[in-house]
Structure formats: structure tokens, C-alpha cells
Amino acid sequence: MAAPLTQQQQPPLREIPPVFLCRIGQETVQDIVTRTMEIFQITRATQLPNGVTQSHAMYQDRFGRLNEHLRQLPLLFRKLRLLYERCVEMTSDLQEVPAELVPYAGEELVSVQVEPCSPAVLQERREVLEKVRQKNQEMKVLMDQMRNLLWDVNAMLTLRK
């Protein structure tokens, strides 16, 4: 029978990659936004007391959902803060500071050095740009055809009256 592991003998916990933490953070932000939107929808749908009695069950249901969302939001923000701090801790050895990567509103943009691309990448870029130009031209032709068709249909409808 094996003896229980002590603190010194325990295997180290598997390190969670920062990319995975960022994905969890993204899902947390989406959850925060969704809950906030639901709070606004609930409050928008709630009628102010104007002497008209509303269904008590419906009121209790909305009140319960609103309280649940309001209870969950601080927890989600706390979780987001922990994820952020953990990501900053894990990526502190990176060369760029996040403030340099994403400028704040009103800050001057710092020029970023761009490494020269290989000829294959430049050729692929040219090919993609040419395909985009071709597709744009095709879409323009289709839009012109649709505009002419709608013009003809409207003209026929006005002649019918």
C-alpha cells in the first residue's frame, strides 16, 4: 500500500497555457455582456407601477432573474480579474507591453517595426488582392443587374396602376 504524498512529493500541477486563459477570459467577457444585456431587457420590459396590477408570478420571475444576474456579475468580474492577473504574470517575460500593442483612446500611435516578408508571402498577398478585386468587380456587375431589374419591375408596376 502506497503512503500518501506529502507536500514535497506531490507532482507539480500542469501549467495552463496563457492562450487557454485568454479564451476563458473571452468567454467570461461574453457572459458578462450577455448578462448585462439581459438585465437591460428585463428592466426595459418591466412596467413602472402605474396603478395597473401585473401578474405576481411574472413579477417574481423577472425579479428572480434580475437578482440572479446581479449576483453573478461581480463573480464574473472577479474571475476576469484573476484571469487577467494570471495572464500578466505568465507573460511578463514578453518583449512588448500590452499597452504598446493596444493603444488607449487619445494616445499617439507608436510605429511598429515590420519585418520584411518572404517573396512567397508577397506573391500570395498579390494573388489574394487580385481575387478580391475580381470578386468585387463581379459583385458590382451583379448589383448593377439587380438595380436594373428592380427599376424595370417598379416601372411595370407603375404602368399597371
TrEMBL record:
* Pfam families named in the record: Med30
What keywords appear on the UniProt entry? Activator, Nucleus, Transcription, Transcription regulation
InterPro entries in the cross-refs: Mediator_Med30_met
GO CC, one annotated term: mediator complex
* Localization: Nucleus
The record's similarity note reads: Belongs to the Mediator complex subunit 30 family.
Protein name listed in UniProt? Mediator of RNA polymerase II transcription subunit 30
Organism from which the protein derives? Iconisemion striatum
- Report the gene name: Nfu_g_1_019997
